[in-house]
Amino acid sequence: MTQVVSPDTSNAMPPAEHEPLSVRALPVIKHAILIVLLVLFLMPLVWLLITAFKPYSELFVSPPSILPKAPTLVNFADGWAIGGGKGIGDSLIVSTISTVLCLLLGYPAAHALARHFPPHGQLSFTILSLRMMPPIVPVIGFYLMFQELSLFDTYTGLIIVYTFMNLPLVIWLLAEFIRQIPKTYEEAARIDGAPWYRLFLDVLLPLSAPAILTAGILAMIFAWNEFLFALVLTGENVITLPKALASFFLFQQPNWGQLGAIGIVAIAPLLVVSYYMQRFLIRSFSAGNGGR
């Protein structure tokens, strides 16, 4: 007589309906925590946006109104006229040019660092340590030097400082990414007789595009938000956005509606660029783990 052997189910996973309640509730708890954190991080931006559309008469009512009863665009026009427009324009000039210079100077240096020096050597640490320097340390030296060279309160002087400030970070980021590109690609191009500029345009540039965009976005954000150098090294001719926003408190009673309006105008381009470039950011940051 044939004996039927039943399968051993002692080690089998229990069905989902028999899982403990704590295990089934864990994903719900995680999502709830993420939602709470998201709300906490977004609340300042949401309140800034609401304030930007509030008329002056609603800014100081008690209790404060959540939504404006009579939304207005006056805050945008007034904030732009009293210094916000010049602040945005000057910040756009110095941050864009300094970012381009960082990339033009940083990529050759990063390629040399990645191909001819060890990844964790003293030179890599020295370059990165320059970015860790507190801004208050070199600012007095820059001030005295710019006074002698007639660079004080000029676009050129601030562009030089922002390039000096962000170049170490750009070099370090690009070098870490270039190390993930196999050398065989470059060697094959050289064997085929490609000159250096074709090697860069046809091989290195397409492979390095995510890292270049990442470094450029970060350099742009740091230059856009920088305050100390702009405060010490400029006067009345160059007024970047952080300095312009600070002047709202120094020379007049702060109008929170105007501050909210200029703040929204200031951060909106960065948010839009970061949103559309996030796939390149993720690709660049994952390159160290082999992702390309």
From TrEMBL:
Q: A single GO BP annotation from the record?
A: transmembrane transport
Provide the membrane topology annotation: Multi-pass membrane protein
Q: Where in the cell is it found?
A: Cell membrane
Signal peptide span per the entry?
A: none
Bilayer-spanning residue ranges: 32-53, 92-113, 125-146, 158-178, 199-224, 256-277
- Keyword Repressor assigned to the entry: answer is no
Q: Which Gene3D superfamilies does the entry link to? A: MetI-like
The organism's place on the tree of life at top rank: Bacteria
Q: In this protein, which residues make up the domain named ABC transmembrane type-1?
A: 88-277
What are the alphabetically sorted keywords of the record? Cell membrane, Membrane, Transmembrane, Transmembrane helix, Transport
State whether keyword Transmembrane helix applies: yes
Q: Give the GO cellular component terms, alphabetically.
A: plasma membrane
Which PANTHER family has this protein been placed in? INNER MEMBRANE ABC TRANSPORTER PERMEASE PROTEIN YCJP, MALTOSE TRANSPORT SYSTEM PERMEASE-RELATED
Query: Which family does this protein fall into?
Result: Belongs to the binding-protein-dependent transport system permease family.
State the protein's name: ABC transporter permease subunit
Q: List the source organism.
A: Rhizobium lusitanum
Q: What is the lineage of its organism?
A: Bacteria, Pseudomonadati, Pseudomonadota, Alphaproteobacteria, Hyphomicrobiales
